[in-house]
Design a protein that fits this description.
By secondary structure, the protein is mostly helical. The chain has helices at 2-21, 46-51, 55-78, 80-105, 112-120, 125-154.
Length: 164
């Protein structure tokens, strides 16, 4: 049941990202001041508009982080005190690594983007989304190992670690 909820959240986050990125951009039917401007929708299916620019990497990154958060939350609920410390550490580690990667690769509009473009050229932009996914994957794997290691040290989920 736990893995069903985790995989369900993974699918929901990935699907939500897909729907958000491929939403229609047309302003037809609006009566606001920008109603005269018609945004041209790119050609191709929604799936091709999602995969061609590499948006699936960010979607997978968000979904993986969401699934890991659900896994940690499930551990907190199952073994309250013991899992709280390890899950918080795993979430903090993955959040810190994700925020650092996001800043360094410029996916959030960070000030590092013009520097990297000046040093590496515009071809660097094609690497940022897969790099974000790879670093999210590594941080989640490290966090998962830390969470699992803390549980195996105790040997029992009903006894808090640390002898407290």
């Amino acid at each position: 049941m736990k893995w069903l909820l985790i995989s369900g959240l993974f699918v929901v986050v990935l699907g939500g990202h897909f729907l958000y990125v491929t939403r229609p951009l047309s302003t037809a039917g609006d009566s606001g001041p920008w109603a005269a401007i018609e945004l041209v929708q790119p050609e191709g299916s929604r799936l091709s508009r999602y995969i061609r620019p590499g948006e699936q990497w960010l979607g997978l990154s968000y979904a993986l982080a969401g699934g890991f958060a659900a896994f940690c939350l499930g551990r907190v609920v199952a073994a309250r005190r013991q899992a709280l410390v390890t899950s918080a550490g795993g979430l903090a580690l993955s959040g810190l690594v994700w925020a650092s990667v996001c800043f360094l690769v410029g996916c959030c509009g960070s000030p590092m983007l013009p520097i990297y473009l000046g040093l590496l050229g515009p071809r660097f932009l094609g690497v940022t989304k897969p790099l974000t996914f790879a670093l999210t994957l590594v941080s989640v794997l490290i966090g998962y190992r830390i969470v699992r290691k803390r549980t195996s040290i105790c040997g029992c989920a009903s006894v808090p670690c640390g002898g407290g």
